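Action item from last meeting closed. Structure (255 res):
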């Protein structure tokens, strides 16, 4: 079977990596909208149009399911996409629920893009789960650009994160949620700033959900070869995919 993956750029590769480990015998079509990244600082209407264009492109490859491997795209368009297409569509959202459930006497800090934090979908999620009012949110838009430009310099990123996190007393926090798939490239740098804080994301849970949905839908799994076709805003670029995956494998994204 063929599973589509979509993200504004290379962040969704962190989710694809989990899928390749859990579902290695499926085939994949990955679409990175690199000509229009980042999404998180654009208008809602502009982002929606980019999303619909991308999914329309992916659909021509007869995919059996789609993973919207982007928190921002999920918050903007997941409901409409499910109305338009009849295959299973798996979205992502910041891992607020597991963070709140595991954090007893401290606070939770959710890091995401500005558009994710502004959307009603995120606000409703927090309102529904955060009965103790322990969730704080912070937008880190520049971190997406750093990842897309392969900027992983510890000193530069640490300086940026220290500045953004300066208003927060990290001793008050028990869990940090990486609510954008691009941020996962910087997990080890976050750990340098927050060594005693749990740092979580929704990637593994998303792929588990994908597997369960496919099983419930009676799809015949393990019928592919693990092939990945990589498209950068509509252009097939397998060489670029290999370059991206080399970077992904170099920087530790796993817990």
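Sequence:
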């Amino acid at each position: 079977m063929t599973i589509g993956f979509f993200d504004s750029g290379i962040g969704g590769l962190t989710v694809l990596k989990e899928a390749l480990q859990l579902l290695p015998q499926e085939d994949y079509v990955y679409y990175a909208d690199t000509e229009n990244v980042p999404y998180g600082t654009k208008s809602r209407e502009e982002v929606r149009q980019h999303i619909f264009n991308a999914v329309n492109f992916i659909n021509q490859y007869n995919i059996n399911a789609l993973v919207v491997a982007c928190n921002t795209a999920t918050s903007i368009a997941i409901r409409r996409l499910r109305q338009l297409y009849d295959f299973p569509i798996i979205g992502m959202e910041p891992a607020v629920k597991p963070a709140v459930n595991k954090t007893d006497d401290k606070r939770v800090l959710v890091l995401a893009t500005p558009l994710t934090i502004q959307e009603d979908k995120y606000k409703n999620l927090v309102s529904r789960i955060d009965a103790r009012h322990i969730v704080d949110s912070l937008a880190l838009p520049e971190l997406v650009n750093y990842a897309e430009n392969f900027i992983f310099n510890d000193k530069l990123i640490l300086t940026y994160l220290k500045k953004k996190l300066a208003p927060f007393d990290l001793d008050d926090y028990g869990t940090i949620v990486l609510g954008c798939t691009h941020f996962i490239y910087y997990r080890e740098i976050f750990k340098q700033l927050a060594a005693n804080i749990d740092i979580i994301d929704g990637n593994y849970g998303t792929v588990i959900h994908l597997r369960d949905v496919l099983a419930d839908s009676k799809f015949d799994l393990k019928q592919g070869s693990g092939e990945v076709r990589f498209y950068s805003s509509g252009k097939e670029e397998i060489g670029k995919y290999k370059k991206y995956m080399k970077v992904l494998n170099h920087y530790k994204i796993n817990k």
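Note appended to the action item: DSSP finds eleven helices and ten strands in the chain.
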